[in-house]
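Here is the promised in-class demo. Please do not try to memorize the tokens; focus on the logic of going from shape to residues.
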């Protein structure tokens, strides 16, 4: 199977994540895209991150009804900091036939050399970069090979969305309706 993995904090998941997954699924003829919320995102230890069960629930609601997408709690159930290199190793153990495509935004692509055992990670997956508004990436800036997939620009970030929800600014059409309802029902970001 040609499997894309879109990891992230998803705090909250938004239309940019969904558009990226859809564009990569089509461009690379993937069988599925796995949304994988981070359990304990070690590179975000400087800020409060919503409970992993809330983030997982928001992803489930956001992708419901789209048979191209599935969600995995693999990083959430693992204890301690979660590293992509370990996630790939576990995935390959349980899905040895899968060809893996790791989907990142241009901003995350530039940070991969700071990841734990990044050089091992990039040899075990095809890294796929989607455009991110305001971030330019030149192949000479990245010390490994990657595939670039253009996508329509969605100028929103999870940081902006958390601020909008905290200020009670309408975020409809930026976040799936079911996810907005979940955020409001659970008082997230208030």
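The designed amino acids, position by position:
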């Amino acid at each position: 199977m040609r499997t894309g993995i879109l990891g992230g904090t998803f705090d909250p998941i938004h239309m940019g994540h969904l558009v990226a997954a859809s564009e990569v699924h089509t461009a690379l003829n993937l069988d599925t895209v796995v949304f994988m919320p981070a359990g304990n995102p070690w590179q975000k230890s400087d800020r409060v991150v919503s409970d992993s069960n809330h983030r997982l629930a928001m992803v489930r609601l956001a992708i419901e009804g789209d048979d191209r997408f599935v969600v995995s709690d693999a990083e959430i159930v693992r204890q301690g900091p979660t590293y992509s290199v370990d996630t790939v190793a576990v995935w390959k153990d349980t899905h040895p036939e899968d060809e893996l495509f790791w989907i990142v935004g241009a901003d995350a692509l530039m940070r991969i050399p700071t990841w734990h055992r990044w050089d091992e990670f990039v040899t075990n997956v095809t890294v796929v970069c989607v455009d991110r508004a305001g971030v330019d990436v030149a192949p000479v800036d990245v010390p490994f090979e990657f595939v670039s997939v253009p996508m329509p620009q969605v100028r929103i970030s999870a940081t902006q969305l958390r601020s909008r929800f905290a200020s009670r600014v309408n975020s409809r059409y930026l976040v799936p309706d079911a996810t907005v309802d979940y955020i409001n029902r659970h008082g997230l970001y208030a």
